[in-house]
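Quick one, T. Sequence first:
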Amino acid sequence: MALRVVFMGTPEFSVPTLRAVAEAGHQIVAVYTQPPRAAGRRGLELTPSPVQREAERIGIPVFTPLSLKSADEQEAFRALNADVSVVVAYGLLLPSAILEAPRFGCLNGHASLLPRWRGAAPIQRAIMAGDTETGVMVMRMEEGLDTGPVALTRKVAIGADMTGGELHDALMPVSAELMVEALAKLEAGTLGFVPQPEEGALYARKIDKAETRIDWSRPAPEVHNHIRGLSPFPGSWCEFGAGGRPERLKLLRSTLAEGAGEPGTVLDDALAIACGTGAVRLAEVQRAGSRAVSAGEFLRGARLDVGTRLS
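Structure tokens:
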């Protein structure tokens, strides 16, 4: 017998799980997602979330509350009489009244190997820290931040040059498959949970704009991990150009390279840049207002002689 499910999610990452749960035959009685946000060139157009668009496409009722703290919102949620809530990157705090409303509680699909990288930005933080693997876990939610007991785990390798965007895309189908497996086990009464260890817990805080600028004085592996972890969004950056009018350059791909020099110095005609120790080679960049291009294409339009300093 199919489960009555409330799905809660917002970004593109959540969409494959929503689709997979529906295709598995469960009755999704409602979708909760973040309200439409201002977008467009002037920021005047309200744009629904990717989850809202998908829910409307497949005909599921959508709710977009600003908060779930009010008694009215909590009563409306309870009235859905759900067996379980599936939560994937929803973005709102779930009060205890919401967590306890479904018969089997709330299952969260989280993109890290808990307790490592609890919090808002586990994909970016894993790469920025130089992790060589991550994964998806299905856990039962409790009031602590990503502290609930874990039911299922699937590991995913992080390649040496893999970007945050590539890892995001690799984890999306894994999250969907694992949640469908969890719901099947829940339905069969075989879904067990193991408490998380506290040892090794790390918090994946939200990416702050202040940390997106590249610090060339750091060792090359750290610079490389910073570039790829923040690619494509929000993107790391530096500045180039002389004459008091530096231009911002978004850095999207890099590799480790041979060489040494003053941090930020261009070392060769293929865009190897000296770091605090070692060097990185920029492979893909983007000038303000332009499209992303390879380093070679960028160099054909921007003069960066050997010895030029990036800041």
